Amino acid sequence: MGTGTAAISPTRWMMIVFFVVCFSMMSFPAPVRARPDLEMRERFYGSLVTASTRDASNESSIADIFDRVLEKEFSSENDSPEGHDANSFNSTVADNQGIVETVALITHDKAKNNDTPSTNAVKPFQLQDVFSLGNEDSDGTQLIDQKDNLFVISNRKSKYPVLQLDLRLISDLVVVIVSATVGGVTFSLLGQPVIVGYLLAGSLIGPGGLNFISEIVQVETTAQFGVVFLLFALGLEFSLDKLKVVGPVAVLGGLLQILILMSFCGLTAAVCGANLSEGVFVGSFLSMSSTAVVSKFLVERGSTNSLHGQVTIGTLILQDCAVGLLFALLAVLGGNSGLLDAIISMAKLVLMLSIFVTIGYILSLSLLPRFLKLMIQLSSQTNELYQLASVAFCLLLAWGSDKLGISLELGSFVAGVMISTTDFAQHTLEQVEPIRNLFAALFLASIGMLIHVQFLWNHVDILCASVILVVIVKTIIVTGVIRAFGYNFRTSIAVGLSLAQIGELAFILLGRASHLHLVEGKMYLLLLGTTAFSLITTPLLFKIIPAVLHLGSLMRWLPTESMQSESCSLAFV
C-alpha cells in the first residue's frame, strides 16, 4: 500500500461492532429483547406490570413496583370493602332467626355545613357536659330502635385491624371511682360506714341522680369483679373445718329459708285473691340477701371468723348457688316450660355443682400446693408473679363455674377455700386485699346507680312500710331456722338481722320475671324500690345488732353469755 495506512486488526473490528450494537439497543429497543424481559416481569409481578408498561414511557421506580407487589399480595383483603361479604347480614339473620326492624342511626359530628348560626351558637354551661364525650374526636355513632333502646357501635367493621378505645367507659370509671372515694371519705369522717358513702355516691351520679353516667351496663359488668374478689377473700379466711361446722345449717337451713318464704308469700297471695305464681316469685325474690354488702360489713367489723359470721357467709353462698335453681323455677311459673323440664334443669345444676366441688377438693390436695410453692420461688424478688397467679386462679375458677351454669360467686369462693387449705392463705390474702377493696367500692357504687333518688323520695312512705315488713318477716324466719339447728338465740338473731335485706341478685330475678310477665306495672316498681331502699338501710341494721342483743339480755329474752364464750361453746356443734 503506497498510502502507508495500517490495516485494522481483528480485535479492533470486534470492539467497533460491539459498540455499534450497544448504541443501537440503547436508541431503538428491539422487540426481541423486550418481550422476554416483559414476560419475565409479568411472570413475577403479575398482570399489574402490563398496564403500567403500556401507559408509562419510562421505567417504573422501585417504590411503584413495591406498591404494586403489596397491592397484589393483599388484594383478597380488599375484595370486600368493609371486611365482610355482602351476604353476611342476611345469613346471620337467617341462621339465628333474627327479626329485622327499623333503627335510627345517629352520628355526632362536630359541625355541619348546613347548620344555622343558632345551631352553632354557644350553649349554656351544664354540669353534665363536663362528663359528656360529645366534644371528643371519637366517632359517637349510636343506634336507637323502636323501643328507644340505645346501642353504641363498639366493634366497627374495617378493612384492617385497628385499636379501638371506649372513651365512654374510661370516663365513666373515672367518675365512679372518684365519686366513691369522695363518698367513702365523707362518711368515714362522719363516723358512718363507708359502704353507705359508696351506695349514695352511686345513686347521685347514676341515671336516677345527676345523670353523669347514663349507660351503666359496662360499669356494672366491670364492677362484677368486686363480688368475685370479695368472695375469694372470704374463702381465704374460711377453712374446711369451719365449713364442715356450718355446712348443714348453711345448705339445709338456706334452702329451708327459701322454701318457707316462697310458701308464705304464695299462701298469702292465694288468700288475698292474687296470682299464686306471682306470690311464689315474690317469696323467692325476698329470699335473696346481699352477698357483697353483708360480706363487706363482716370484713370491716372483723366478724368473718365469728360463729354468726360463718353461718351468714355460708348461707349467702347457698343463696348465690340457688339463683340458678330459681331461674329454672321462673320458667315454670311463667308458663314457658313444664315441671319435668324444670326438674331436669335442677338435677343438671346439682350434678355440675357436685362435680365442680369434687374436682376443686382433689386439686387442693395435689396440684395446688406445688403450684403456689413454685410461684413463691419465682417471686423471690417481687410479688408480682404471685399476685398475678392468685388473681388468675380466682378468675379461672369463677369463669369455669359460670360456664357450668353455677355462678361466678361460687367459683371464686371455692378458689379461696382451696388456697385456705395450704400454707399460703395469709400471704395470698395480703396480695389480693388491695384489688378486692378497689373493685368492691366500684361494685357498691354501681349498685347505687340502680337507685333512683327521686323515685324513692316520691314514694318514701310506702317503701318504708315495705322495708320494715320485709325486715321483720325475714328476721323471724331466718332466726327460727337457725334456732332449729341448735344455735342459741344470740347467734340466730344476729344471723337473722344480717340477712334481713334484699340482695343485688334480686335485680336479676326481677328483670327475668318482668320478661316472663310474672310481675308487671306497679308490683314491679314496688319490688324495685323496696330492694333499693333495703340496701340503703342495711348499714342501720348492722348498727342496731349489738343494741338488739344488749336489749335482749337486759329484758332476759336472751342469755347473758358473751359472744366469745358462745363461739367457743358452739364451735363443736
UniProtKB/TrEMBL annotation:
Primary localisation category: membrane
Keywords: Antiport, Ion transport, Membrane, Signal, Transmembrane, Transmembrane helix, Transport
Span of domain Cation/H+ exchanger transmembrane: 177-543
Residue stretches spanning the membrane: 12-32, 173-201, 221-238, 245-269, 281-299, 311-333, 339-363, 437-457, 463-486, 493-511, 523-549
Subcellular location: Membrane; Plastid, Chloroplast envelope
Gene Ontology molecular function: any one: potassium:proton antiporter activity
Pfam families, per database record: Na_H_Exchanger (PF00999)
Membrane topology: Multi-pass membrane protein
Keyword Transmembrane among UniProt keywords: yes
Domain of life per record: Eukaryota
GO annotations of cellular component type: chloroplast envelope; membrane
PANTHER family: K(+) EFFLUX ANTIPORTER 5 (PTHR16254:SF20), POTASSIUM/PROTON ANTIPORTER-RELATED (PTHR16254)
Function in brief: May function as sodium-coupled metabolite transporter across the chloroplast envelope.
Name of the featured protein: Cation/H+ exchanger transmembrane domain-containing protein
Organism: Dendrobium chrysotoxum
